[in-house]
Design goal:
The chain is α+β, with helices and mostly antiparallel strands. The strands form 7 sheets. Strands 20, 21, 22, 23, 24, 25, 26, 27 and 28 form a 9-stranded antiparallel β-sheet that branches. A 6-stranded antiparallel barrel has the order 3-14-17-16-15-18. Strands 2-19-30-29 form a 4-stranded antiparallel β-sheet, with no helix packed on it. A hairpin with a 6-residue loop joins β25 and β26. The longest helix has 25 residues.
Length: 488
Amino acid sequence: MAQSGSGRERSVKKQSDRNHNSKKQNGKISKYRKPLNLNIGMIIFGVIFIYVVVCVILYFQTSHIVRYEVQEGSLVTNNIYRSVIIRDETVITASTAGYVNYYAREGERVAKNDLVYIVDETGRLNESLESMALEENSLSNKELAEFRDEIVYFVHGFDRKNYSTTYDFKYSLQNTLMKLANVNMLENINGYGGANGANIVNYSYAPRTGIVAYWTDGYEELTAEQVTSDIFDNERDYKKKLLLSNTLMAVGDPVYKLSTNENWSIVIPVEPERGAQLLNKGYIKVKFLKNQYEAWGQVKLLTNVDGNTYLQLSFTNSMITFLSDRFLDVELIVEDETGLKIPQSAIVQKEFFLIPEDFVIPSGTNGRGSIIRQCYLEDGTISSEMLEIDLYNFDDNTKEYYLDSSFLNLGDVLYKLDSQETFTVSKRATLIGVYNLNKGYADFKQINILYQNDEYAIVKSNTRYGLSVYDYIAMDASTVSDDQFISY
């Protein structure tokens, strides 16, 4: 019996070994799959997640209405311009060859037949002047005052960015010095001519009254109507020829020029819209940045041959102050337009029907009114109905109201109050305005633009059908439509 039990155990063990070897041979191990357990919390979380994803997608695909609070303000504009000077100038040329020595100082007014310069044909006078320069000389108080005035004027108007004016100042001092030397020399001028038995000195007198200048630039005959953009574009190549004393001149060479009229002007390039606004002012105060001098200029608008718009500002005095200049930086001192400041993106145009005032019944000052419109009853008989509507503007010239086209149709017939006279709706016009959001929906309000630039517009405040300070408007008019309800 014991042997028999051992045999059974050995048989079972062999069978187990065979099964184990069989599994090894197959090489397959089955993984236990855990069943999915869904609960109400996971379902709710999934629904919320899908809702959030949809809301985010819709948010980025929808135009958002941004409110803008209307405030009072003004536009700061750049009123600094580069200008070119227009003067009545006459260039005087040399009639005799020789060394020119100026007697009149630059900027000095000379009368007709006053001595301006002398010509030394042989050069002997020039030698005499050089010898006089080596001698010890003294200046009177009057002569020193001339130098002092020039120095003070230069220091007051000097700009480090325009260092070339230093050379103009140097040459002006040289001419003043030579003029003073010539005055002393002219006291003995007859002795120089008589000692040599020949008239070596020729006198040149002013042909007319004017202010003397000793430089030329080729723009002496320029008129305001001839100004083009090339004059400003080529300013870098602009050169002024200085006419120095004690210089050898040939016959026909420019020797000096006379500014014969105290009236002068400057011309600046402007945008057509800006030019039209400035033209309406008539006169504008101008600040000359060179020396901070201010003057009132009469405004004239020009459209020249190059098709560009230019503003001419004319003056009746102070021409001598800028005698040595052709180009000037100026600032136009104009009052900034003040009103309600709104962004350009808020401005929109809307079409309206024009209705004569006899067919509109205004109701107070709230911008609303009523009309009597023809209608048809169910049985086809003609009747009338009174509609309360918004009034958007009134034209004082044509005596017509602007009514919203959403309340009326083309061809509607309106009645006059207490009359059988009728009017057929047909005439249209547009208004410029913004969408007011104060009432919770987009309500069009007309605006009267006083001035505008690329970003903002200044509109008239407290108009009957317009905006008031602290109103809320749609910052971007393209994101709203008429009477759209606004939710925040």
